[in-house]
Design brief:
By secondary structure, the chain is of the alpha/beta class. It has 13 helices and 7 strands. It starts with a strand and ends with a strand.
């Protein structure tokens, strides 16, 4: 099986855009299409999930309110019993003060103790409720908070549901909008993946590099188109025994092919082909490839431009670009005689892989 590097370019662009908006970024084409088709169900699933969570929260709050109420009553009962016992003990001590007083000192002591005990009793009675409430000071706010939340959920469930699911729904809506905006890229990714699946049928003598990119600084000048080339993006570079195939994929309808306003893919491929030619014939490339020598001169690395159209194909033929449909692609690749060894193919592929994403 053909060795493949990198994801297809259209899918990479879609994933990058989704990651920028924090709404995904690892989905396959099939997952993106499934999301588009099941967007309404996805929203309903989110709403249903949050409704379930809120019902669970209500149930848990109800249980916690009962438990807190019981804990408050138990604590108040224990503290009330303790305070009541202390108060009764003070009153009993007051009642048991000796009533027989024979000396001035005893009278003085009696009135002093009576005053002290009466004051303690007065303070105990005065602070009784305060001490009782103080004992449950940490439980009452919790009970109030849980009661308020329960009453809110019970009386305003729809509002609570909208608030709870807002972030998730906003995320899924934003993702849907982005995917809708990138529908053309999704169709492009479908086409590119079909081409990759077809190329993978080739033997391991072939190496495929998807989404090849280079930036040129300073720009290259294309003499035929009389334009500067700042960067190139090539859907597929196939390196094999018969050379290099620069492959662009278009999943276009007949209407798109006939649209005069769409940029010509032929011109696009010729532009990329010229840039690839410059890359393959630079000093670094020729020294890296280490192609076998011939006494007539330096060996050339054949590079061919191919446009794969998935749906419709023009009847016309074009200079320097072969236009094929998917079923014709492998036949075209196999048409040419081998001229490169496995080592040469590997060295060229390694060089192009190294160039991928570079600024030159």
């Amino acid at each position: 099986m053909c060795k493949v590097y990198n994801s297809v370019g259209c899918l990479t662009q879609i994933q990058s855009r989704l990651r920028e908006q924090n709404v995904g970024g690892n989905e396959s084409v099939e997952e993106l299409i499934h999301f588009q088709q099941n967007y309404g169900n996805e929203r309903e699933k989110i709403i249903g999930h949050h409704a379930f969570l809120l019902e669970q929260e209500k149930e848990k709050l109800s249980e916690e309110i009962v438990q807190l109420t019981m804990a408050i009553n138990a604590t108040k009962g224990e503290v009330e019993e303790k305070l009541t016992l202390q108060l009764e003990q003070l009153k009993l001590r007051l009642e048991n003060l000796p009533s027989t007083l024979s000396t001035v000192m005893q009278v003085y002591e009696y009135y002093f103790k009576k005053s002290v005990l009466s004051t303690k009793i007065w303070f105990s009675e005065l602070l009784f409720n305060y001490r009782l409430n103080y004992s449950i000071r940490h439980l009452n706010p919790q009970l109030t908070e849980k009661n308020n939340r329960f009453q809110y959920l019970d009386s305003n469930f729809e509002e609570a549901l909208n608030n709870s699911s807002l972030i998730s729904l906003t995320t899924v809506d934003q993702k849907k909008n982005i995917i809708d905006e990138l529908s053309n890229s999704i169709y492009g990714a479908i086409g590119e993946q079909k081409v990759v699946a077809e190329i993978e049928k080739l033997s391991n003598d072939y190496i495929l590099i998807n989404d090849f990119n280079c930036i040129f600084n300073p720009p290259l000048f294309h003499p035929e188109q009389k334009q500067k080339i700042n960067s190139i993006q090539i859907d597929h570079l196939l390196i094999g025994p018969s050379g290099i195939f620069l492959i662009e994929t278009k999943n276009w309808s007949l209407k798109s092919i006939e649209n005069m306003n769409l940029r010509s893919p032929i011109q696009q491929i010729k532009r990329s082909g010229y840039a690839l030619y410059k890359l393959l014939n630079g000093k670094m490339a020729t020294s890296t490839f280490n192609l076998k020598k011939h006494h007539w001169g330096d060996q050339k690395v054949p590079a061919r431009n191919v446009l794969v159209l998935l749906n419709h194909k023009p009847k016309e033929n074009f200079k320097f670009v072969k236009v094929v449909n998917l079923s014709e692609l492998l036949s075209y690749v196999h048409y040419f005689e081998p001229c490169l060894s496995n080592n040469e193919t590997t060295s060229i592929a390694n060089y192009l892989n190294w160039l991928n994403g570079k600024v030159l």
